[in-house]
Amino acid sequence: MNREGSNRPLRRLASTGWLGATAALLPVAALAAPMQDNVLVYPPTFFASAQPQDALDMVERLPGFVLVDSDADIRGFASAAGNVLIDGKVPSSKSESLKALLRRIPAASVARIEVIRGGAPGIDMGGHAVVANIVRVAQGTQNLAVELGEIVARDHVLRPNGSAEWSRRSGDQHLDAAIEIATEFDDDTGTGSVATYGPDGALVEGAERRQWEVKQTLSGRGGWETPLAGGTLSTNASLAREAKDEDVAVLGLDGETVAERKTDLQGEIGAQWRRGLGGGMRLDLIALQRRGWLPTLSTSVEGDDQERFDEESDTAESIGRVVLRRERGALVLEAAAEGAINRLDSAAALTENGAPVALPGGDAHVRETRAELSLNATWQATHSLVIEPSLGVERSAIRQRGDTELERRFIYWKPRLALSHALGGDDQLRASVQRVVGQLDFQDFVASASLDRDQVSAGAVDLRPPRTWQFSVAYEHHFGKGGAIVVEARHESITDVVDHTILRDDSGDVFDVVGNIGNGTRDTLSLDATLPLQSILGIDGARIEATVDWIRSRVTDPTTADRRPISEDKPIEGSIAYLHDLPGGKWSWGVELALAEREREYRLDEVRSESYGPRLGAHVDYRPAPPWTIRLEAANVTALTHRDRRDKYEGLRDTGAPDEIEVRRTATTPTVVLSIRRSFGSGAAE
């Protein structure tokens, strides 16, 4: 084993004097962790040339690390966590994105960032192969950051962006709060055309089309951390209101206008208590409560015809989790128990010219109770080999009421085995095999309608979670100053794929519905690379970052019995960026190219194909003084065309030619964002 190469990041700490200066502030375990081959340590000096303002600036510069955000749509806590820890702990919030959380941590408050690959004592990996642990300094600090800006669309529409973030650390007490208003334009926003062609390819009709979709979010959140009963209590609370407006106009003889309004209210309160019990034992208790309310109104007017779709959903989630962890030498054992109660109450109605339309699943009430037990181990078998076996069992009951009366119970075993082997020189080989049980989207149980596309979907009946055996191998190579390449190959064998299928109601009418369509496979090849250009081209402070996924999936179509990709799987997706921190630290700039994408959705009577060309973005950051950052960012500079094709059939889709083809082309809208950020008091608190 090459110990010389594996301890390079730690030697960099020692050479800067940081390790000795902070030794008195850190527990012994924290100082020992970087000695392992699967932990890379990045001190503040690694990021100094870029003059980062917050922890997010630092995480985005970690070589070969790709941020995986928390997912509020996944029920439960353990499976929804992202791949960033704060002082060794998973953030107790599900609703707040990791990016928002990291922006509230000033760069001056970060003692170091540990990138853990394959597990380490005291670290909860949360099922991720790689996590980043933000270790904060123990000194008292206080910081306030205010950001003001505007987002401008092509049609000279200005919308505000802004935020205020405050944090204070004094001894063992930590407080933080933030308020934000953010505006986002959808990728489909723009002007273009819609054309319909017959089976022979002849143009039947065409018209101009305009689409405008904007989302504005107002949110507030806060957190408090304090010693309690011999441990540490971390609490969080948040409230957010997201308003989404979509307007579509088709300019023709009769003309058509479609308007959709959604207002999503989400609230969350959570707490996490951690205490060391002695003898290498540690206890974590987590509790979380979330509530949501989402009313939707869609209207369509075409000539003398009018349609209206109303839906109102009320959601709630309650989570409790207990984790007992024991560390003894090279072996870490962890036992966890988690319980969750989820519910969805939804009512949907569709009318045409005032007359109600039958909508299976328009009245849906879904309840789920789920319990999960797991036993995990992390064994440092040798200096270079870490073995992580785990076994979990999940038991759930889903009760469906309303238009459908049904109750189902499931028990699933979830084994996992992961290996990570240090190859020397900070390189690593990882392999894993695991059984993953997917979650059902409660919205699939509810009827839906897209008036713009004249599509109606029934609520799902007797839906089962997909189960996947997942096999993966990854190789990580580090080189030069900040260079890294990570290549991963993954194969998934899926039972009960969730996709579109057919539902017949009591009257014999046929509806498109989300359901289980059999077994399928998915193969993914991923590349994540950070290439510093100083050693290659002599350009100091410049780097190329690339993230690309190639995906191939297969499943048997329930309508045609042909093999086809799983709906909405993209054959390729990713981005390539050139980023340059200019000498002196005041200027940085970059350009990013999002790769062309396409995806297909297979419904009972049509195939929908969406595609985007490559999209170019650019940004410039100017820091006239350390507390200030002025950022100019342009997205979708090339304003490329979004193409949406629908191959329609009169009845059930078959292998023959479609009866009608509709093609929509939209010249998407570039946006420009200007923001000014000012930080106050990022040093030690008085």
Secondary structure class reads mainly beta
Number of distinct beta strands: 37
Biggest beta sheet attributes: 22 strands, antiparallel, barrel
pLDDT averaged over residues: 86
- The fraction of residues assigned to DSSP E strands is over 45%
Measured on Cα atoms, how large is the radius of gyration?
Answer: 26 Å
Overall body shape: globular
Distance between the termini: 48 Å
Low-pLDDT regions:
1-35
Describe the protein:
With 686 residues, this protein is mostly beta strands. It has 8 helices and 37 strands. The protein has a 22-stranded antiparallel beta barrel. The chain has a 4-stranded mixed sheet with strand order 1-3-4-2. Strands 20-21-25-24 form a 4-stranded mixed sheet, with no helix packed on it.
Summarize this structure briefly.
By secondary structure, this protein is mostly beta strands. It has eight helices and 37 strands.
Throw out a few tags for this protein:
8 helices; 37 strands; 22-stranded antiparallel beta barrel; 686 residues; globular; disordered N terminus; single chain; four-stranded mixed beta sheet; mainly beta
Note the topology.
Elements (H helix, E strand, L loop, with lengths): L2 H4 L1 H9 L1 H5 L5 H5 L6 E4 L1 H4 L7 H5 L24 E3 L11 H6 L6 E8 L12 E7 L4 E13 L4 E13 L2 E13 L4 E8 L5 E26 L2 E21 L4 E23 L2 E22 L2 E24 L2 E22 L2 E3 L5 E18 L4 E18 L3 E19 L2 E11 L10 E3 L4 E4 L8 E13 L3 E13 L2 E7 L5 E7 L3 E13 L1 H4 L4 E15 L6 E2 L7 E10 L5 E8 L2 E6 L3 E7 L2 E8 L5 E8 L5 E8 L11 E9 L2 E10 L6
Parallel strand pairs: 2-4, 21-25
Antiparallel strand pairs: 1-3, 3-4, 5-6, 5-37, 6-7, 7-9, 8-9, 8-36, 9-10, 10-11, 11-12, 12-13, 13-14, 14-15, 14-16, 16-17, 17-18, 18-19, 19-22, 20-21, 22-23, 23-26, 24-25, 26-27, 27-28, 27-29, 29-30, 30-33, 31-32, 32-35, 33-34, 34-37, 35-36
